[in-house]
Amino acid sequence: MFTRLLNGIRSLAMSSTIKPDVVFVLGAPGAGKGTQCTNIVKEFGFIHLSAGDLLREERNKEGSEYGELIEDNIKHGRIVPVEITCSLIEKAMKKSGSSKFLIDGFPRNQDNLDGWNRQMAANVNLLFVLFFDCPQEVCVSRCLERGAAGSGRSDDNPESLKKRFDTYMNDSVPIIQYYEQQNLVKKVDAGGTPDEVFEAVKAIFQNISPSR
Ligand code: C5P
Ligand code: MG
C-alpha cells in the first residue's frame, strides 16, 4: 500500500518535471515570425514548429486525407480545423524529443485555442506568447516581396493576403488579447530590419529562466 502510494507520488512528480516549455509566436502574416524563430533556434536552442509549415507539409504528402481541405483553407486565408493542426504539432513535438518549443502561428483563432486547451495545455509549460507587432503596410510588402522572390506559396498574392489579414484582425487579434489579459504577452516592435528586431527578441530570451 505504502509502496504503491510512493510510486504514485513519484510518477506524478516525474510527469510534471518532463513538461516541455512552449513559447507561442504570433503576429500578422509577414511580421517576421519565421525569420526570428530561425534566429532564436540558433541562439537559444529551441525547436521551431510552424503551424503553417506543418500544414503545408501534410498537404504535400502523397495520399494525405486532409490535403485538399488544407489547401482550400490556405488559399482563402482561413484557419484549418484544430484537430488537424494540433495533432500535427503534437506529433512533431514527440518526434523531436526536445523540451523547448517555439510554436509559430498558433493558436490563430478560438477553435485553435479551445482545441489546444482540450488536448495539450495541461501537458506543457507555456512560458509566454511572443507577439511581433508590425504595421500592416510593412507586412503586406514583405509578403509580396516573398511571393515575387519565389516563395512558392499559394497565398503570397494580393488576393489571398487580403483574406489572411481579415482573418488575422477578426480571429487572431482576440487570441492575443486573451493572452494579454493573462499577462503572458511579450510584445516586440517588428517593423525594423531582422537584426534590429532580433536585438529586442534576444533581450527577452536572455531573461527567461526555463522550468528546468
Ligand atoms: O503562418 P503561415 O502564414 O505560414 O500560415 C499560412 C496559412 O496556414 C494560414 O493563412 C492558414 O490558412 C493556415 N494556418 C492554419 N492554422 C494555423 C496556422 C496556419 O490554418 N494555426
Ligand atoms: Mg511563417
From TrEMBL:
CMP binds at residue 112. It comes from the Eukaryota. PROSITE patterns: ADENYLATE_KINASE. It is an enzyme of class 2 (transferase). SUPFAM superfamilies: P-loop containing nucleoside triphosphate hydrolases. Consists of three domains, a large central CORE domain and two small peripheral domains, NMPbind and LID, which undergo movements during catalysis. The LID domain closes over the site of phosphoryl transfer upon ATP binding. Assembling and dissambling the active center during each catalytic cycle provides an effective means to prevent ATP hydrolysis. This is UMP-CMP kinase.
